[in-house]
Write a structure and sequence with these properties.
It is built from nine helices and 14 strands. The longest helix has 18 residues. Helix content is about 25%, strand content about 15%. The protein is of the alpha/beta class. It has an eight-stranded mixed beta sheet, covered by helices on one side.
Length: about 325
């Protein structure tokens, strides 16, 4: 039985990890460097390096013939999906639900408020020594639509609650009821979009959501509406978004883009009404303590033979 655990943090920096000797584990540090820390065939529990991209995430998977758990440190798993076919049956793929909700929801609200209240314009005005006063839209009394109502979407609504929005509508893959109200299925988007002043994307990237925000979706948005993307870049058709931005009909705040990183000279950098942040939704001081608590809890359960949290799929099932 293999006992290696590959971690993107030094084991001694993670409080609460099972003691290596007592648990019969060998902790190996690997954060995506060119050299593997040991033979991948001996790895039983692989924690994917954070924000290092698909190439690094999947590089050891074809050789991990004994791995039983692949744990991401992201809410989405799209960066490891290309390597799933390399895995033997019965491998559990777990995501990082509970790690990024607070940080990503904070940024979503920041992007909404900054865009509505004209903060990018004020920053540029300060740079130019111009006093750009006037009336700017408030979040109060606005109708907000959250597309992707999982744990992050719910955390976004938590932070919207004190801002006196006129309405918050929720959309997920399928309909369900919550304490706050109904969650609408994706099929109802066409009727919901024209009512929303702000549309926030927090959906995972799947075959269903790739390109979801295309020309038809954007055309149904209200004139003057704001699109906020804290999901994944390919959820939005960049060409279609550029056409709407250049017309001046809507505005957008984007923490994620397609392509990403956004290259120099790309028209999104200077598109009218676009506010771009460099995929920092989860990259805050809130990340490390939550990520380390998750790993300590998951490995404790793994050693004890108890069910793991956040299992997204099991290969071969």
């Amino acid at each position: 039985m293999t006992t290696d655990v590959w971690l993107p943090f030094e084991a001694h920096d993670i409080e609460g990890l099972p003691a290596a000797v007592e648990a019969g584990l060998t902790y190996r540090y690997w954060d995506g460097g060119p050299e593997f820390p040991a033979d991948p065939a001996d790895c039983a529990f692989y924690v994917v390096p954070y924000m290092k991209g698909t190439e690094i995430a999947v590089r050891p998977l074809s050789a991990m013939t004994s791995v039983r758990v692949v744990q991401t440190l992201t809410a989405g798993i799209d960066h490891v999906e290309p390597g799933i076919d390399f895995l033997a049956p019965g491998v559990q793929l777990c995501n990082a639900r509970g790690v990024h909700e607070a940080s990503t929801a904070e940024l979503a609200l920041t992007l909404v408020l900054a865009s509505l209240r004209g903060i990018p314009r004020f920053v540029e005005g300060q740079r130019q020594e111009e006093w750009r006063s006037g009336f700017y839209p408030a979040l109060a009394d606005k109708s907000v639509l959250i597309v992707g109502y999982g744990s992050i979407g719910s955390a976004i609504e938590d932070r919207l609650t004190p801002f006196e929005c006129a309405r918050v509508a929720r959309v997920a893959r399928s309909a369900r009821a919550t304490e706050r109200g109904p969650v609408h299925p994706l099929a109802e988007l066409p009727s919901l979009l024209p009512q929303a002043d702000v549309v926030i994307l927090s959906t995972p990237l799947t075959e269903v959501t790739r390109g979801l925000v295309g020309a038809d979706f954007l055309a149904r948005m209200k004139d003057g509406a704001l699109l906020v993307n804290v999901a994944r870049g390919p959820v939005v058709d960049t060409k279609a978004l550029l056409a709407e931005l250049e017309s001046g009909r809507i505005t957008a705040a984007l923490d994620v883009t397609d392509p990403e990183p956004l290259p120099a000279g790309h028209p999104l950098w200077h598109a009218p009404g676009a506010f771009v942040s460099p995929h920092v939704g989860g990259s805050s001081s809130a990340f490390l303590p939550r990520a380390k608590r998750l790993l300590a809890a998951q490995l404790t359960k793994h050693v004890a033979g108890r069910p793991l949290d956040n299992v997204v799929l099991t290969t071969g099932s």
